[in-house]
Amino acid sequence: MAKGVERRLAEASTLAELEGDRVLLGRTSTAERVADILRDRIAEGFFPPGTRLSEDSVKGALGVSRNTLREAFRLLTHERLLVHELNRGVFVRVVTVDDLIDIYRVRTLMECGAVRGLGEPPYPLEAVEAAVVAGERAAQASAWQDLSTANIRFHQSIVALAGSPRADELMRGVLAELRLVFHVMADPRRFHAPYLVRNRQILEVLQSGDAPEAERLLASYLEDSELQLAGAYAQRVSAS
Description:
Layout: H1 2-21, H2 31-43, E1 52-53, H3 55-62, H4 66-78, E2 82-85, E3 89-92, H5 97-116, H6 126-140, H7 144-160, H8 165-182, H9 188-192, H10 194-207, H11 211-239
Antiparallel strand pairs: 1-3, 2-3
């Protein structure tokens, strides 16, 4: 009974957040913009894996038509963030260990490639530094979801150094899918806090102008993160 009340309160809170996003649609209420909002909300942790997205609730919160919302759902299904189950509806996807391995393969190509392609220093590191500081502040406040979000922003800002809108768009989807893994972890502090020091180290090496060393540190970082997450995720999913 208590769990049911808690679940309804959580759903009401999430829908209230979506209502706040309605202003982002402006006068151009397109399926792509709706998909952008939902993708960001998934990446921020508002919709855990396995969550059913009610058409009526979401379209009411955003103030869009059913056809617009269905097209947004279709776009996010194509991005592997949602799944449509016949006669049941649309759900936030639960990723597999193989998915996780492939996500890291893409991340390594994109993040290391962005650093490798840097020209002469100094580099535009304002967004990278802001993400590092946000993560450190979240850790101090024991705000683990905020820490997870700051860590994702750090990696987005690394890819943004390439100056490619297409790479930025691809990275948003990849990291939103990765965020679905984080929800299954029993102890988010354990998975995110140790990487704060490494985020700071990579930032400082980039600030010094040593891009090859930053790439080496980043490649090692991603390899360690993949091994840690894949092992823990496989164990957690098999036990659920």
